[in-house]
């Protein structure tokens, strides 16, 4: 077996393509060089039944052979079809318009999939970062455009930022499939309209969306009511609990102004006992014994946890009414304010009893997004950020060569 046959096997070439010539250029004393592989096709071959009209010289960067940079060269034929139109033949080792082989692009995607930042991956591949971003964007858009989304019935909607404190993106999640189906720049009510238009374009009518899980953002609420009129709204558990915890902390702060010893005990009252050390639990219960207002507030906070155990809207609504009455009787202002907020969002809160929708899925996806953002130190290009969201949380199917490292 000679060297050309070895390279033909390595490249997976099939007739009519073959390796015509191999050249290697290595500077004296250098540890690496450049391999140029010249490909050609068998004389007289008719591509797709058409006669070769002419050829164009093309070059593609390929994966390194050992430590040597490798480029493929070929004269790509153009053929005249039955209608008389001249078309360029698609070569089997690269996609149209690309300056890289499919294996090179697949390796780049694999590096990104392995949680390597694009800038670092481009260094491994020895290309400019923007060229790798272009490869990345192509395969994401190709997979995303062919993604099946017509069966979505339950939507979770949340927001995330592309950089710390900068430029928000609204993310729509198929709660049943646990994956992102669309992402839109911004965080206003108009983003819900964009999501609705996107789903309808994919064959999912707005009346098909039965349930939504969102936070208490007025823009999200108005957006859902306008664009998904048949969908029920469930406010996720995390944001409801957050309101109660904020009320608890305000009570502690108010008491701290009078009693300095309460400083530094914030998380003693926000964490569950199982997440506290023994000394932390002892400190908390000592304070509850000494400060009746804090004790009463803590009792209300703990009582609210019972709300999540109900399985019907009637039972949940009855308990929420009872809890709000206790808050009113307590006279504790931060809790009275929290109760008013819950009453305003009553239906979306008691819906949880039957839908059991919560942001656990959304939080899990957002954690992946935030980790990717941290590795990349933020995203200046919002389109790159959205494509990365699809890549890590869209469960897309790609058709580039698959292999592992």
TrEMBL record:
Residue ranges constituting the Transposase IS204/IS1001/IS1096/IS1165 DDE domain according to the UniProt record: 155-389
Domain Transposase IS204/IS1001/IS1096/IS1165 helix-turn-helix stretches: 89-139
Origin superkingdom: Bacteria
Signal peptide range: none
The name this protein goes by in its record: ISL3 family transposase
Originating organism: Echinicola soli
């Amino acid at each position: 077996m000679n060297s050309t046959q070895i390279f033909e096997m390595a490249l997976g070439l099939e007739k009519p393509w073959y390796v015509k010539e191999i050249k290697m250029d290595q500077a004296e004393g250098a540890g690496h060089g450049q391999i140029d592989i010249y490909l050609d096709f068998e004389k007289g071959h008719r591509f797709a039944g058409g006669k070769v009209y002419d050829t164009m010289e093309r070059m593609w960067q390929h994966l390194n052979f050992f430590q040597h940079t490798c480029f493929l060269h070929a004269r790509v034929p153009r053929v005249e079809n039955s209608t008389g139109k001249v078309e360029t033949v698609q070569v089997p080792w690269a996609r149209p318009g690309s300056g890289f082989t499919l294996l090179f692009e697949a390796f780049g995607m694999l590096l990104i999939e392995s949680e390597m930042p694009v800038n670092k991956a481009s260094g491994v591949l020895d290309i400019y970062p923007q060229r790798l971003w272009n490869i990345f964007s192509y395969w994401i858009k190709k997979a995303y455009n062919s993604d099946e989304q017509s069966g979505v019935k339950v939507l979770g909607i949340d927001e995330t930022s592309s950089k710390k404190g900068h430029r928000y993106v609204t993310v729509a999640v198929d709660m049943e499939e646990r994956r992102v189906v669309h992402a839109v720049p911004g965080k206003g009510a108009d983003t819900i309209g964009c999501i609705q238009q996107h789903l309808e374009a994919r064959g999912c009518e707005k009346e098909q969306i039965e349930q939504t899980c969102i936070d208490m953002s007025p823009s999200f609420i108005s957006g859902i009511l306008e664009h998904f009129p048949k969908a029920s709204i469930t406010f996720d558990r995390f944001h409801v609990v957050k309101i109660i915890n904020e009320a608890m902390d305000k009570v502690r702060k108010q008491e701290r102004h009078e009693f300095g010893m309460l400083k530094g005990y914030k998380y003693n009252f926000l964490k569950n006992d199982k997440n506290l050390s023994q000394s932390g639990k002892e400190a908390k219960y000592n304070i509850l014994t000494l400060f009746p207002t804090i004790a009463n507030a803590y009792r209300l906070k703990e009582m609210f946890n019972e709300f999540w155990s109900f399985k019907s809207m009637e039972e949940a609504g009855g308990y929420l009414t009872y809890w709000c009455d206790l808050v009113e009787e307590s006279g504790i202002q931060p809790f009275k304010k929290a109760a008013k907020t819950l009453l305003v969002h009553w239906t979306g809160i008691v819906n949880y009893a039957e839908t059991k929708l919560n942001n656990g899925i959304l939080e899990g996806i957002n954690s992946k997004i935030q980790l990717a953002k941290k590795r990349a130190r933020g995203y200046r290009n919002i389109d790159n950020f959205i494509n990365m969201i699809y890549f890590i949380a869209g469960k897309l199917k790609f058709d580039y060569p698959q292999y592992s490292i």
